Amino acid sequence: MQKIKDLLKKTDLQKEDIITLLQAKEEDRLVLLQQAAIIKKQHVGNKVYLRGLIELSNICEKDCYYCGIRKSNTKTLRYNLTDKEVLEAGQFAYENNYGSIVIQSGELQNENFTKRIEQLLKQIKRLSDDKLGITLSCGEQEESVYKRWFDAGAHRYLLRIETSNKKLYEKLHPTNNLHSMDKRLKSLELLRKSGYQVGTGVMIGLPFQNIEHLAKDLLFMKKLDIDMCGMGPYIEHSDTPLFQYKKTLLPLSERFDLTMKMIALLRIIMPDINIASTTALQAIDKVGREKVIQVGANVLMPNITPGKYRDSYSLYENKPCTDENAEDSMSCIDIRVKLAGDEVAYSEWGDSKHFKKRQSND
Ligand code: 5AD
Description:
The protein has helices at 2-9, 15-22, 26-44, 83-95, 111-127, 143-151, 166-172, 181-193, 211-224, 252-269, 279-284, 288-294, 326-339, 353-361, and strands at 47-50, 52-57, 100-105, 133-137, 156-158, 197-200, 203-204, 228-230, 232-233, 274-277, 299-300, 343-344. By secondary structure, it is of the alpha/beta class. α5 (111-127) links the parallel β3 and β4 (133-137). α2 (15-22) crosses α9 and α3 crosses α10 (252-269). The longest helix has 19 residues, at 26-44. 5'-deoxyadenosine (5AD) is lined by residues 66-67, 160, 162, 203, 232, 234-235, 237, 280, 315-316.
């Protein structure tokens, strides 16, 4: 235990240290998780910020080998919310004091899509009297597109790197221009340049992934100096190419535990960023998101997509809450967050403290 305590005192954890911490068991594991909880309270307090999640469409041009809404999956029923449905979800978030929303979508790169998002952003800003914060998660785009969306009112953007290891990245994606890791990295750079608070993240427990990859993922996020992170366990989907490696995967409980440790360690090495407690956690453990709030996460993304579409946005199987409507989820949030020992920060944007600090230093 002393070894773990000594490691946690270090100010610049190295890859080997992180590997040791990711492998911590029993008492050692608890020491790590407790330290992360302390650092969270010190740096970002006990407020949990809400982002009402609107899954705009599952129509996607990409063919990522892990994802249930990949282009080649003909079994997925494709949908596209109407503008009216998106605006109603925005109105719902505003009236229920969410403070912010996230618009997430399958990836499309064309002018119609760009313009649609641009107009929706302006309309949501208008209907909420500029009070709703908006995060986008709509994939890789040209710089001009990122700028248009920023000018229309989005101020945070999530684009996961999925893994920071190039070889692994190439095993998870087709090898063509549409799925290049360099492009993903470039997009993250362009987002920063366009003025966004930038979030990224990885999947944990992927086929071919080892503990060293995960340690390097954490150091990658530190090096990129990200403002926000959303990372979660990989959950196999039977209609995807990676499903064939199911037998090589860690048990779900271990993927969950690794995710907890990854979040705890990220909180320790980047104390003032925003970290989301992701939905995939809840697919494994009913109170998974709450457990992760206790060890470092400070953002929750309740799904406010109209209920009838929820089943179709299946990135992975066994997605939670797909049979509930938004109101049902909302009634649980307050209790769930209190259960984790925190408080919901209603009607607040909850911007990344890390971003604000960087801006004031510039
Ligand atoms: N398991 C877990 N997460 C997944 N995602 C896509 N497919 C899966 C899966 N099978 C995540 C990716 C993507 C985000 C929108 O969903 O990390 O960036």
